[in-house]
Amino acid sequence: MVKAKIYVQLKASVLDPQGKAVTTSLHAIGYERVADTRISKYIEIIFDETDLAAVDTQVHSICDKLLANPNTEHYHFELETME
Amino acid sequence: MVKAKIYVQLKASVLDPQGKAVTTSLHAIGYERVADTRISKYIEIIFDETDLAAVDTQVHSICDKLLANPNTEHYHFELETME
């Protein structure tokens, strides 16, 4: 089994309204040292597969086809072999 | 400046319908080796602060008060000093 830990984040140039809302809320309840907040997706996929290279190829294609919007988001991931 | 990298995840005992939907979609488009998918939030908060202990305390309290639902979610985080 292999676990893929995938981060799908808005590109730095894209406004994150959900993050701005959290920053505003945090200022309102007294956390004035908060300068910025960015909210992203973190996705774990477990593969019934032992070949890391095969999983690497599949995760790239899954992100391109389903998980990330290439216009506004980028992704990166790590693979971890599970016992 | 300190960056907090915060993971807010559903507890293992809580059903993740969004993750199940992704698993089903992936099977439908041919990724049959996908065994499970869990979708979580990954939040980066930048603090205008240099004291790591002060940020650590604030992040715990921000997660408890705003970011995580203690009934269904748990969180963990890492802190990173930025140049």
Keywords:
homodimer; 83 residues; alpha+beta; Mth169, Chain: A; 3-stranded antiparallel sheet; 2 helices; 34% helix
Describe what is shown at a glance.
The structure is a homodimer of 83-residue chains. Chain A is an alpha+beta fold and 83 residues long.
Which percent range fits the helix content of chain A? Answer: 25-40%
Q: Averaging pLDDT over every residue of chain A, what do you get?
A: 96
Low-confidence runs of at least 5 consecutive residues of chain A: none
Radius of gyration of chain A: 16 Å
Characterize the main sheet of chain A: 3 strands, antiparallel
Order of helices and strands of chain A: EHEHE
Strand content of chain A: 35-45%
Greatest interface (CB-CB under 8 A), with counts per chain = A-B, 32 and 32 residues
Can you describe what's shown?
The structure is a homodimer of 83-residue chains. Chain A is α+β, with helices and mostly antiparallel strands and 83 residues long. Chain A has a single domain (2-81), classed as 2-Layer Sandwich (Mth169, Chain: A), CATH 3.30.1280.10. In chain A, 34% of the residues lie in helices and 39% in strands. A three-stranded antiparallel beta sheet of chain A has the order 2-1-3. Chain A starts with a strand and ends with a strand. The mean pLDDT of chain A is 96. The interface between A and B is medium-sized, with 32 and 32 residues. Strand 2 of chain A pairs antiparallel with strand 2 of chain B, so a sheet runs across the interface.
